[in-house]
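Data deposition worksheet. Section B asks for the primary sequence of the deposited chain exactly as it was used as input, without tags or linkers unless they were present during the calculation. Section C holds the resulting structure in token form. Section D is free text for depositor observations; keep each observation to a single sentence. Incomplete worksheets are returned to the depositor.
Section A, Depositor: J.P.
Section B:
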Amino acid sequence: MNQIKLREGVINQIAVAKDYILLQTTACIYHLPLTTEILHSSTGKSMQVSNLKKGYYFHEYSYNGQHLLAVNEKDSFYGVFHGEYHEKNHLIDDQLMMNIHPKTKKYGSSLVDGAQVIAFCQLMTRSIPPQSTPEALFIFKKRGKSN
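Section C:
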């Protein structure tokens, strides 16, 4: 079973080359496709590469050839959940019960049962599992799907 892969670090240098985004940390250099979606981890708002700065923290998620770069000025990724979406009970891998609001921003593919998803939440209940209305969702395409 394929799962979302996570890499994280602090941006030391970032640039756009002809066919990729170069992201460098003190320990590693990443070449990300130009199709990489960039979202702020606290607000879930879309960002441009030109808005990223040295010292920003990042979580880079990849699944099935797709990439998402979640960034923040601080090492603050509280409220970011990732995993498989279960439509019957609106859960992400038993970690988060989602209440999807019409104002929840959706990026990527359509939200369907079994999709790999990343939810950006600001407020959550203290229940088990926590419940939240995400600010934004990034939905990875299911393997073999083109939507």
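Section D:
Residues 119 and 137 are 5 Å apart (CA to CA).
The mean pLDDT is 90.
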